[in-house]
Amino acid sequence: MSNFTIRDIPPQTGRIAVITGATSGIGYETAKALAGAGARVIVASRNEKKGAEVLASIRATHAGAEVSFEPLDLSRLSSVADCARRIADSVSHIDLLINNAGVMSIPTRHETVDGFEMQFGANYVGHFALNMRLLPKVFAARMPRVVTVSSLAHRGGRIDFDDLQAKQRYTPWKAYCQSKLATLMFSLELERRARAAGWNLMSTAAHPGYARTGLQSAGRSWDRDTMSALERLGSFLEPYLSHSAAEGALPTLLAATSPSAQGGAMYGPNGFYELKGPPKLAKIVPRALDKAVWKRLWDVSEGLTGLRIPVPEAA
């Protein structure tokens, strides 16, 4: 498992994959690899211009690749609903649903149009809503997987139910860590529910380590152009501690395609502090394994979105 590369991806011909945020970084590398293995790939992201460029790039790399683009703004529940409807109308099933998109460490607090703190809203709530709407198509597949991209930052996260939207006190890193802990807990709770109900679904998670994707600077662009002291330190250390976006995508690809992948787990790099290296089973901190918090977060998320998990017809 620790030597997994894109050459180890089983043939994906006939399989349909939906990937959020796949116009750059590890999402793009994931889409390209799956398309190269024969999957039909739907790229769901905000930027239509970049989407067109990505489709052209993938087709140039893999002649005959079956790829398409769907506009999706995870910070708008109306956009999530519209995107999910278009995808559902265009496919009979979804074999792979990969929750990849994210924004990181916005310097000052912003809200989504639906009133959620931006990082929690885009990274977590939007994905929760998208999954609730697309799960009927996932359940229609023979052996589907939902892969949720979390982060090493989950280790520093806490779900603050008393101030979930950071209205009382906002710090960029705390909000980011909470959002990535929430995505991991979503993955674990979905797997728990699938096993308890006997659904034909595997839910697993991945993190890219420290991948050079531009995510680290994307959040800064919301409010300022200069780097903080911590960002300058990270930039200095980057050549020593990080790996490429293609390498950072390998844990996601392993989780999505490997016969050895496990549900209710997370995959990440095998190097120092899981910052870089080939993929392996990753460490999940004890705080993230609190099943009572999983359930409470799920219940709160249903209230925030007005959506509940659709029970498969065969269940």
Summary?
The chain has an 8-stranded mixed β-sheet with strand order 3-2-1-4-5-6-9-10, with helices on both faces. Strands 7-8 form a two-stranded parallel ribbon.
Structure description:
The chain is an alpha/beta fold. It contains 10 helices and 10 strands. It has helices spanning 25-36, 48-61, 77-90, 118-139, 172-197, 215-218, 229-241, 245-248, 250-257, 291-305, and strands at residues 16-20, 40-45, 66-71, 96-99, 145-149, 202-206, 211-212, 243-244, 266-269, 279-281. An 8-stranded mixed beta sheet has the order 3-2-1-4-5-6-9-10, sandwiched between helices. Strand 1, helix 1 and strand 2 form a beta-alpha-beta unit. Helix 4 (118-139) runs parallel beside helix 5 (172-197) and helix 5 (172-197) crosses helix 10 (291-305). The radius of gyration is 18 Å and the shape is globular.
The number of distinct helices, counting runs of at least 4 residues, comes to 10
Shape: globular
Helix content: 40-55%
* SSE class: alpha/beta
Tell me about the largest β-sheet.
Answer: 8 strands, mixed
The averaged pLDDT comes out at: 93
Uncertain parts: 216-222
Distance between the termini: 33 Å
The overall strand count is: 10
What is the H/E string? EHEHEHEHEHEEHHEHHEEH
Spatial strand order of the main sheet? 3-2-1-4-5-6-9-10
- Beta-strand portion reads 5-15%
Cα-based radius of gyration, to the nearest Å: 18 Å
Task: List the defining traits of the structure above.
315 residues; alpha/beta; eight-stranded mixed beta sheet; 13% strand
